Amino acid sequence: MSARLDSAQPYVVGAFRIVVGLLFAVHGAASLFGVLGGAMGTHGGTIDAGTWPGWYAALIQFVAGGLVLLGLGTRAAALAASGSMAYAYFDVHQRAALWPIQNGGELSVLFCWAFFLLVFTGSGAFGLDRLATRRTAATGEPAAEQAPMAV
């Protein structure tokens, strides 16, 4: 059974990446463009451009989420997204209480760890990273993203 599950791993990681990237990008789009209900607390509005940290967080969410969704520069985009969510948790949510269930930070924690996982797994299947890796492997140039090695 393990061999069958292991063979499906790239596809499951790819599907996971697509869902997490889409949700993150949509969250940023809502704050930047006022779509899908807009930014939280604005009654359908947007966050004012250049406002710290909200507008920058929304920009990171939109751009990094889109890159992760496409599987383009997945590891770097996931690292930026994970870091932004860690910042959101420790700077915004943890001021209210220690535990995420008490301070409303569950989504920040989940996004942080989901993106942190993608830093180490890469894009999985269906990502544009894999197309670039195949192209560079065919030309003999070093591949941009290698599969992780077991130690």
Total helices: the number is: 6
Give average pLDDT, whole number: 87
Percent strand: under 5%
Low-confidence stretches: 144-151
Computed Rg: 17 Å
Order of helices and strands: HHHHHH
Query: Roughly what percent helix?
Result: 55-70%
**Distance between termini?**
23 Å
SSE class: mainly alpha
Overall 3D geometry? globular
Question: What's the story with the biggest beta sheet?
Answer: none
Count all strands and give the number: 0
Task: Note the topology.
Blueprint: H1 2-33, H2 54-70, H3 74-93, H4 100-103, H5 106-121, H6 128-139
Helix pairs in contact: 1-2, 1-5, 2-3, 3-5
Structure, described:
- Helix content is 67%, strand content 0%.
- It is an all-alpha fold.
- The protein has helices spanning 2-33, 54-70, 74-93, 100-103, 106-121, 128-139.
- Mean pLDDT is 87; it is low at 144-151.
- The protein contains 6 helices and no strands.
